[in-house]
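Hi team,

Below is the intake form for Nucleotide-binding protein GHK86_11890 from Acidiferrimicrobium australe. Please confirm the fields before the structure is written into the shared record.

FORM ID: S-0412
PROTEIN: Nucleotide-binding protein GHK86_11890
ORGANISM: Acidiferrimicrobium australe
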Amino acid sequence: MPTFDVVSKLDMQEVRNAVDQAQREVANRFDFKDTGSSLELAEDEVRLQSSTEDRLRALVQVLEEKLVKRQVSLKALDFGKVEEGSRGAVRQTVALRAGLDSDHAKAVNKWIKEHGPKGVGSQTQGDQVRVTGKKRDDLQTVIAGLRGEDFGIPLQFENFRD
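The structure came back. Fields below:
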């Protein structure tokens, strides 16, 4: 019986490279000179800091551009609120979401049950959803449908087996 897994992963090496590129660009750009703008990659978040809110928005834009060039989905970013810092500086934390939490797994299962072809089933297994079906074509139809739907997180499809 053919199966595949629906997962939501984040390539941390690509994220690290994108943050490094953004740091280099911020260090070299004239409009970021003497603004105290910085990016810092923590374990599962990126901390942004700048002197004004306008510079912070520009910093976010630079980060997003670098992530898109490295094929990291912007759906994996969860922007926190802008906080006031010392001496008028502003900070923002961008959380990196990876893995299917229970709410998103339920939404994927529900979508498959409502829109999937007859004979296709799904079940949650930890931070992934296993989809099984009788025909390979049915599973490919489910993959195409899930790609067209917006669940608010990036989805990848792995372990396609006949």
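SUMMARY LINE: The radius of gyration is 20 Å.

Thanks, M.
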